[in-house]
Write a structure and sequence with these properties.
The chain is of the alpha+beta class. It is built from five helices and seven strands, in the order βααβββαβαβαβ. It is globular, with a radius of gyration of 15 Å. InterPro entries: Acyl_CoA_acyltransferase, GNAT_dom.
Length: about 180
């Protein structure tokens, strides 16, 4: 599957690396956009510190954070529970885990999600991984299905439940790689 190209004329700037000073804006966006999946600021900041290349900010037209991505290498068989510390990244990671993405409504529809997935796909390929995984929550399963993700099986129900009653672990194979 190939990702559609971004529509021209996006009002947002390109994704950029998340910095420590972005955390208050990330927390504000997370609280507003994911009310059913609350997390502590230090848990989110730990992900930024563990994997700076996988944590991104989408600036709005004024340069303020209008979206964010938190992602990192992980093990597909044991996705992390919501609001838990990782402590370290696994040495034998086999997937790129998209922990969270949020884009303000004013920046949607301009290809930002596709651009973020292209960045994460590059990270996964650079680390020798053949899939991106995530936990679809708060009614997002149709969006992720549209983006080419399919449900994963075998994830412990107690992990999935931390993301809410409708949570669904999902993955997408990276085109051109061999699925294990």
């Amino acid at each position: 599957m190939s990702l559609p190209t971004s529509p021209p004329g996006s009002p947002a700037g390109p994704w950029r690396p998340m910095q420590a000073h972005d955390l208050p804006a990330v927390m504000a966006l997370a609280t507003a956009m994911h009310p059913g999946c609350p997390e502590r600021a230090d848990v989110l900041d730990e992900r930024r510190r563990l994997c700076p290349s996988g944590c991104l900010i989408l600036p709005d037209a004024q340069g303020r954070p209008g979206g964010y991505v938190l992602s990192h290498p992980w093990r597909a068989a044991c996705l992390p529970a919501l609001d838990t510390y990782l402590h370290r990244l696994p040495g034998q990671a086999d997937c790129w885990y998209l922990h969270d993405i949020a884009i303000t409504p004013s920046l949607r529809g301009h290809g930002a999600m596709h651009a973020a997935l292209r960045i994460l796909t590059r990270h996964a390929l650079n680390h020798g991984m053949n899939q991106i995984t995530l936990m679809a929550a708060e009614g997002a399963r149709p969006v992720w299905t549209h983006m080419g993700f399919t449900p994963m099986h075998g994830i412990p129900p107690d992990i999935t439940a931390t993301y809410g009653a409708d949570a669904c672990p999902m993955h997408r194979a990276i085109p051109g790689t061999i699925q294990a």
